[in-house]
Known about the structure:
Elements: E1 7-11, H1 16-27, E2 31-37, H2 52-57, E3 59-63, H3 68-75, E4 80-83, H4 90-95, H5 97-118, E5 122-126, H6 151-170, E6 174-177, H7 203-206
Parallel strand pairs: 1-2, 1-4, 2-3, 4-5, 5-6
Amino acid sequence: MSMTNKKILVTGADGFIGSHLCEELVRQGHDVRAFVLYNSFNSWGWLDYAEPEIRKSLDVFVGDIRDPHGVRLAVSGCDVVLNLAALIAIPYSYHSPDTYIDTNVKGTLNIVQAARDLGVEKVVHTSTSEVYGTARFVPITENHPLQGQSPYSASKIGADQIALSFHSSFDTPVAVIRPFNTYGPRQSARAVIPNNRGSPPAAAAIFDASKYEGPHTDGQR
Length: 221
């Protein structure tokens, strides 16, 4: 489908991937609504560090993906939804799995339900390679079995299946993408591979500290 003259909603716009996506869409001349997680600091996450002209061009919606009413309001008037909102990080999911179900599964349900009701032209749901678990064969293909090896990966499997079920049941125009290893500016420092001495020499190449002085946290993407 053509993206020309389309209003695009990006959820998880305050995170690592979502903030870069918003910036690129604005640079390409698209009309972008950026859904960021509400917080008491009045922060737009990594979008706080975007160029001023890009920030001025964004239609920022502050809310919570877990709230169906806010999600419906955010989706209203949009033609395309790029869903990157998610609670990430495997270790945290071990002791707080409920939060992953609420954000990843119910949040995705809120998105596709609103998209169906409001007649959105396309939903692109962002999944993760973690849904495949430990590889049973390589290269991994879409036919690889899904394995919920952590509450996080299980929640993402559930989110994918909710999205796909709306396509199968209601013909909602949904596509699922599953990124593997993503890296670059704004990536969490915990993801940088250390050298033999335990320090991350790659950090200087990945982070421009003079430009990105915000915290490297694992909130919603």
